[in-house]
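User: I've been trying to design a sequence by hand for this structure and keep getting stuck. Would you show me what you'd pick, starting by listing the structure so we're on the same page?

Assistant: Good idea, let's start from the same input. This is the structure you sent:
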């Protein structure tokens, strides 16, 4: 039989089209031949990330990247086999321009595990202890960025600038002038995303002024203090003015989980109401987002994706709260092209009307804490969207207690009629509470796996949601997946992943649950450094002992640490 390396070039090309980036890298390493290098290049080098600082080895990584992209004469490698010939997406990350040392990581870990560092996860930032990158490293980064942008801007499909007010403004302004220079914008054929994270609201006016002409805009508040600063009318006016400078804006995301005066949002709604090209709107903020200017979204005919999360206060308020003017406007306007809807904390009559008004909901993400609302969703909404739904996520509590797939109080079996379902997140932990207040953990994940794999032929991923600081719950899940065995033919030929998201708030022994691939140093020192861990499990097929029958099990194949909504890879 011919070896893989001797297959025709056309077959290699077709095979690579089905590989993700990591798989293409593995193939490239296993077969470092000219044919494989040529066919995998477009996949492996499709995205280029230029990151300033943010890691203890940032200088080494920057130097390695320069050696890959530049010739011996310190010029961009323009040869046919050069890495940049394949790049179609450029990500420039200048959010955390700091050098992170081993001492910093160790010290922070000790603070958290000893209870001396008690800050909410969205207010953590490396700037409090880390050192700003040296001038030599900064100049090297700017030189590489300038050369890369001038070389590939004409053939890019997307460009994303992730930045923050932690970057000194002179450097920030220098990068902005390059990105928004007339010469670059003239040949702009790519989708341009700007994501600005602010630690100080009073700096918004200065930092947003150089920006314009982006297709997607994200304004994200993340303070280094335990209590975020309030945003005022001047700060919000800077956001609104930037929106007006972004002609053809397709996506807008404003996230800042702190109190905002309603008159500040008047300014923002005045800008949002006129975004005729907007396709995606995300507002994750306080509950006080409606003042005298009401949302009038009649011009937003192209709106397809909506995400609202107005803080935990919404759990306790009624339909009369002014925030529901957003959903009332969407219902009144008659918008029926929404495909993705995410709402945190509430489910009300006007949200239900909006959902029933849509023609093709594909993604639905709901956080609900009312048994009656959960029953309404399963009885009315799921049957209405069953023909188009591809991703369904639901979380929350019933009567203040955990619930799961096999909970008779909230029968969600109508979901099994969603034959196009590809991703599911459903509570899997139930707890039988006795009169004493104690309880036994019931894990319904095996039942959930069997039911959905049997009924949903396109299912590829199951999310367990975020596991809170409960060692018994986390260990129960890991034990269930480790011990899972089935000889049922429903698993034959299926590619199923299970994603476990495990939070690490406080000292509760999370390292005992997450450890699979040993890391350097003492594992216990790392507890609580990261916001959460992602464990990835994949379905495997094996031959049963002493026979030809197939046995299906889940293997834990990957652990990743996350902090500030980004993955921290091992070195």
């Amino acid at each position: 039989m011919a070896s893989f390396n001797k297959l025709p070039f056309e077959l290699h090309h077709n095979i690579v089209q089905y590989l993700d980036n990591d798989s293409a890298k593995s193939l490239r390493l296993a077969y470092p031949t000219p044919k494989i290098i040529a066919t995998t290049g477009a996949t492996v080098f499709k995205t280029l990330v230029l990151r300033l600082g943010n890691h203890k080895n940032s200088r080494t990584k920057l130097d390695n990247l320069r050696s890959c992209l530049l010739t011996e004469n310190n010029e961009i490698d323009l040869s046919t086999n050069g890495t940049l010939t394949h790049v179609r997406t450029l990500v420039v990350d200048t959010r955390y321009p700091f050098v992170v040392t081993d001492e910093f990581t160790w010290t922070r870990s000790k603070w958290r595990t000893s209870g001396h560092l008690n800050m909410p996860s969205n207010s953590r930032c490396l700037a409090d202890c880390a050192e700003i990158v040296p001038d030599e490293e900064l100049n090297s980064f700017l030189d590489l960025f300038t050369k890369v942008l001038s070389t590939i801007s004409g053939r890019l499909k997307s460009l994303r600038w992730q930045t923050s007010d932690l970057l000194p403004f002179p450097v920030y302004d220098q990068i902005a002038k390059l990105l928004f220079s007339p010469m670059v914008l003239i040949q702009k054929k790519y989708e341009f995303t700007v994501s600005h994270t602010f630690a100080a609201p009073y700096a918004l006016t200065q930092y947003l002024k150089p920006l314009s002409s982006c297709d997607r805009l994200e304004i994200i508040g993340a303070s280094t203090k335990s209590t975020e600063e309030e945003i005022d009318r001047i700060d919000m006016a800077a956001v609104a003015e930037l929106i007006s400078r972004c002609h053809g804006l397709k996506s807008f995301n404003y996230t800042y989980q702190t109190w905002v005066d309603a008159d500040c949002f008047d300014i923002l709604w005045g800008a949002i109401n006129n975004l005729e090209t907007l396709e995606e709107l995300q507002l994750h903020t306080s509950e006080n987002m409606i003042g005298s200017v009401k949302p009038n979204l009649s011009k937003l005919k192209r709106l397809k994706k909506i995400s609202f999360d107005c803080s935990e206060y919404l759990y306790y308020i009624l339909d009369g709260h002014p925030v529901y003017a957003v959903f009332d406007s969407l219902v009144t306007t008659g918008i029926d092209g929404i495909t993705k809807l995410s709402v945190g904390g509430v489910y009300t009559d006007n949200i239900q009307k909006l959902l029933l008004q849509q023609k093709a909901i594909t993604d639905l993400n709901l956080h609900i804490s009312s048994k009656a609302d959960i029953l309404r969703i399963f009885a009315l909404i799921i049957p209405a969207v069953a023909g188009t739904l591809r991703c369904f996520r639901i979380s929350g509590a019933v009567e203040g207690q955990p619930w799961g797939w096999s909970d008779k109080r909230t029968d969600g079996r109508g979901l099994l009629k969603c034959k196009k379902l590809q991703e599911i997140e459903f509570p899997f932990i139930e707890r039988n509470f006795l009169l004493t207040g104690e309880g036994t953990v019931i894990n319904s994940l095996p039942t959930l796996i069997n039911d959905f794999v049997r009924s949903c032929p396109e299912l590829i991923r199951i999310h367990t949601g975020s596991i809170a600081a409960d060692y018994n719950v986390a260990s129960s899940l890991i034990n269930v997946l480790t011990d899972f065995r089935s000889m049922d033919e429903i698993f034959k030929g299926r590619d199923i992943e299970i994603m476990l998201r495990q939070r690490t708030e406080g000292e509760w022994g999370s390292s005992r649950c997450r450890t699979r691939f040993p890391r350097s140093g003492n594992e216990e020192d790392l507890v609580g450094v990261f916001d959460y861990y992602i464990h990835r499990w994949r379905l495997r097929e094996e031959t049963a002992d002493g026979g030809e029958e197939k046995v299906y099990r889940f293997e834990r194949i990957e652990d990743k640490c996350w902090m500030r909504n980004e993955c921290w890879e091992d070195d």
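That's my pick for every position. To get oriented when you compare it with your attempt: The radius of gyration is 25 Å. The first helix runs from residue 9 to 16.
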